[in-house]
Specification:
Number of domains: 2
Helix content: 40-55%
CATH superfamily of the largest domain: Aldehyde Dehydrogenase, Chain A, domain 1
Strand content: 15-25%
CATH architecture of the largest domain: 3-Layer(aba) Sandwich
Number of strands: 20
CATH topology of the largest domain: Aldehyde Dehydrogenase, Chain A, domain 1
Largest sheet: 7 strands, mixed
Radius of gyration: 23 Å
Shape: globular
CATH class of the largest domain: Alpha Beta
Strand order of the largest sheet: 12-13-14-11-10-16-17
Number of helices: 15
């Protein structure tokens, strides 16, 4: 099966790659296994040195890596540059703190000496998404490599050039051959891959069906998994909030990565007392967005990554409008395309859209809208806001806006999510654990918790 790199802004095929042959895949697995046998014994100082070198490689050529991301999946170039810089940051974070995270933890018992030791498991398979093609990989790879594991990357099939570039970053940094390898294979071969005894665990960021499939395959082999799946993140605004800051942040939080982020704010639950000015302000923010070629300076919204994402989002929006929802702005693909130059007509475009007065029984109730569409709901009080926020099968992140300490504590305690941000947009940070609950997945990335997901947490008791 061919793996194609296609520019989503123009529809032009950039490059085509062939799947790894069965023999080539076996060779990479053997190389990973052999590398781990030696790599696990390298010193923490040496691993930290390699990670810092990886950060330097990223920063030295950040424009090239950013342009590659923009070409393959369409994010604005400025956002792609920031993603490369954040990838370097996570390498340095684990280089600086990994030794402390991995140090033996003494425990007082009836033994002469008892403690917990943290040891690597072996080759870890990472099934990664296209929407943050560098950051998603580095936030897995940095802690895994610092811990003494080795990585095998099965990246999304629409970003093969990014996948190969990431492998090259680790090679240039001096990591041993086999410590991090890219596997150019289709999704149909993942189950066969995790059945191999040399793969010790797996992590996936992606859709619910993809996560369920990987978890089932790993479950049959009794192998550890970490899943970070979708989100319908609520953004709750109460009357005590700084409304201007909430509106500005709401637009940023929804439009992050052209709206294609699991932790983007998607459902805006706004108290009815301030709903009118919130909607007016959000509409002004959306109207100021610049849609176009993401390589051009000043463009803030690029194309969606694939035609299928556009089709699904359009179907969801149409279903809401057909039931009586109102589009304050956007909603029409033909109207947007009429404004674009000829060379962009074949791209995957969707206009920044705000839907309000959404009746019950539409996709907005339960489904994730993965694109530049804001869903605004009016609520009568905080109780209703929390109830509606929790009334979905997903629970990744949530943002609450209030200056009232009592309301803030209710939001922190009662929102069903892996992360709650008060008066700020939900974001990932190397210092903090990241992940969800319910059907948004399980396990954590980042922080000390993320590093320890793929370690043998060994109890040691000495008399």
């Amino acid at each position: 099966m061919a793996i194609a790199s296609i520019n989503p802004a123009t529809g032009v095929t950039l490059q085509v790659f062939e799947d790894l042959t069965p023999a080539a895949l076996q060779a990479k697995l053997s190389q990973a296994d052999q590398c781990f046998a030696q790599y696990r014994h390298t010193s923490l100082d040496q691993r930290a040195t390699w990670l810092r070198a990886a950060a330097q490689v990223l920063e030295a050529d950040k424009l090239t890596y950013a342009q590659l991301m923009t070409l393959e999946m369409g994010k604005p170039l400025a956002a792609a540059i920031a993603e490369v810089e954040k990838s370097a940051l996570v390498c340095r974070f684990y280089a600086d703190h990994g030794a402390g995270f991995l140090a033996d933890t003494p425990i007082a018992t009836d033994a002469s000496r008892s403690f917990i030791r943290y040891q690597p498991l072996g080759p870890i398979l990472a099934v990664m998404p296209w929407n943050f093609p560098f950051w998603q990989v580095f936030r897995f790879a940095a802690p895994a490599l610092m811990a003494g594991n080795v990585g095998l990357l099965k990246h999304a099939s629409n970003v093969p050039q990014c996948a190969l570039a990431i492998e090259s970053v680790f090679e240039q940094a001096g990591f041993p051959t086999g410590a991090f390898q890219t596997l150019l294979i289709g999704a149909a071969r993942i189950a066969e891959l995790v059945a191999d005894d040399r793969i010790k665990a797996a992590t996936l960021t992606g859709s619910e069906p993809a996560g369920a499939s990987l978890a089932a395959a790993c479950g049959r082999q009794i192998k550890k998994t970490v899943l970070e799946l979708g989100g319908t993140d609520p953004f709750i605004v109460m009357p005590s909030a700084d409304l201007e800051a909430a509106i500005t942040t709401a637009a940023t939080a929804r439009m992050l990565n052209n709206g294609q982020s699991c932790i983007a704010a998607k459902r805006f639950l706004v108290h009815e007392a301030i709903a009118d000015p919130f909607e007016q302000g959000l509409r002004q923010q959306f109207a100021a967005l610049q849609v176009g070629d993401p390589m051009v300076a000043g463009v803030t919204v690029g194309p969606l990554a694939t035609p299928s994402i556009v089709a699904e989002l359009d179907q969801q929006v149409r279903a809401c409008l057909d039931r009586g929802a109102i589009a304050l702005i956007g909603g029409s693909i033909p109207a947007l395309k009429a404004q674009l130059p000829a060379e962009l007509q074949a791209g995957n475009w969707f206009p920044p859209t705000i839907l309000t007065q959404i009746p019950p029984g539409t996709p907005a109730d339960q489904e994730e809208f993965f694109g530049p569409v804001a869903l605004v709901f009016r609520v009568q009080n905080l109780e209703e806001a929390i109830q509606r926020a929790n009334a979905t099968p997903l629970g990744l992140g949530a943002s609450g806006w209030s200056q009232d300490p009592t309301e803030q504590e209710r939001l922190i305690s009662d929102l069903e999510a892996g992360a709650v941000f008060i008066n700020g947009l939900v974001k990932s940070d190397p210092r903090l654990p990241f992940g969800g609950i319910k059907r948004s997945g399980y396990g954590r990335e980042l922080g000390v918790e993320g590093m320890r997901e793929f370690l043998n947490i060994k109890t040691v008791w000495v008399k």
